[in-house]
Write a structure and sequence with these properties.
Keywords: DNA-binding, Transcription, Transcription regulation. One of its GO terms (molecular function) is DNA binding. The protein is mainly alpha-helical. The chain has one domain (about 10-190): Tetracycline Repressor, domain 2, CATH 1.10.357. Helix content is about 75%, strand content about 0%. It has helices spanning about 10-25, 30-35, 40-50, 50-75, 85-95, 100-105, 110-115, 120-145, 150-170, 175-190. The relative contact order is 0.12.
Length: about 190
């Protein structure tokens, strides 16, 4: 009979998320994860299979706890006309505050995309799905904000907004002012 697990996997995942977000997958050592989660190496490997398994759980938590709640107004059945502008303004507020994780570290998934771990086929698929989810939300937001535009113009504006947001989330950890300027430009494009 196996031992009863005495820890909450979701708590361990949240703790590991902070480490991976700050240091990246390749910059995070198992002892960093042991310290952050309070778990032993054997408990981490037993629960998650590997450091990579814990990273995958952290990525899922990032999507569910950070990304999707912010996108929720753009994914609703009825999207408000100001939902996209509010989303962009919210990102800008977060990026302008250097103590918050997004401002300090950028986007976990976009960072992973440019790191050695980003060559993994499974992670590439997660990142591609994330970009598609973001693009679909931008499309819905533009449709609600600019009902005066034809379909081709809506698609072009949604692509431009997506590009500005991806660039800002990539740039913010090294140039927060530049990231905020990109978001300001996205707001200008929307108006």
């Amino acid at each position: 009979m196996g031992r009863t697990r005495t820890f909450d996997e979701s708590d361990a995942t949240r703790s590991a998320l902070g480490v991976f977000w700050g240091q990246g997958f390749d910059g995070t050592a198992v002892p960093d994860l042991e310290e952050a989660t309070g778990l032993s190496r054997s408990s981490i490997y037993h629960a998650f299979g590997s450091k990579r398994g814990l990273f995958d759980a952290a990525v899922s938590a990032y999507l569910e706890q950070v990304v999707r709640p912010r996108l929720a107004p753009l994914r609703a059945d009825a999207v408000a006309s100001d939902a996209l502008a509010e989303y962009v303004r919210g990102l800008r507020r977060v990026m302008a505050e250097p103590t918050l994780p997004l401002a300090a570290h950028g986007c976990l998934l976009l960072n992973a995309a440019t790191a050695p771990v980003g060559t993994d086929a499974g992670l590439r698929e997660v990142i591609r799905d994330y970009r598609e989810e973001l693009a679909a939300a931008m499309q819905r937001g533009v449709e609600a904000a600019r009902p005066d535009l034809d379909a081709a113009s809506v698609a072009a504006l949604a692509t431009a907004c997506t590009a500005h947001i991806v660039a800002a989330m990539t740039l913010v950890r090294v140039d927060a002012d530049g990231a905020c300027e990109l978001l300001d430009n996205a707001l200008t494009l929307l108006s």
